[in-house]
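Sequence, structure tokens reproduced for absentees:
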Amino acid sequence: MSDFRRVTDSFWVSPQISAGDLAEARAQGFGLVINNRPDGEAPGQPTGDEIAAAARAAGLDYVAAPVSGRPNPQAIEAVARATADPSKKVLAYCRSGTRSICTWALGQAGQRDREELIRLGDAAGYDLRSVLD
């Protein structure tokens, strides 16, 4: 079952998705899926390759930018590049969605006001205060 959470019109986050969620993502107008979850975190978790194949089969682009713990500069930059075009609706996911929104927010920190990022996070159900300090 999809739990896509709007952050902005062009950036959304979700807890772990399944291959079956990709057709719904396409139907909702997404053009790109970003995977922020490393493979093997939990038993039964779909692999990045499985999600990538399902995304491509649904006509979606796919970017892997796995994050363990606090987002690293490489993941922040990959997400910033992938979300630079506001005309492309992006869905990023991890186990709960927290790493996805944190990685995005850190990449947006130079472009958006901290309070705006906190409001966007709150509206999506995520507290960004500690990551933006």
Q: What stands out?
A: The longest helix spans residues 98-108.
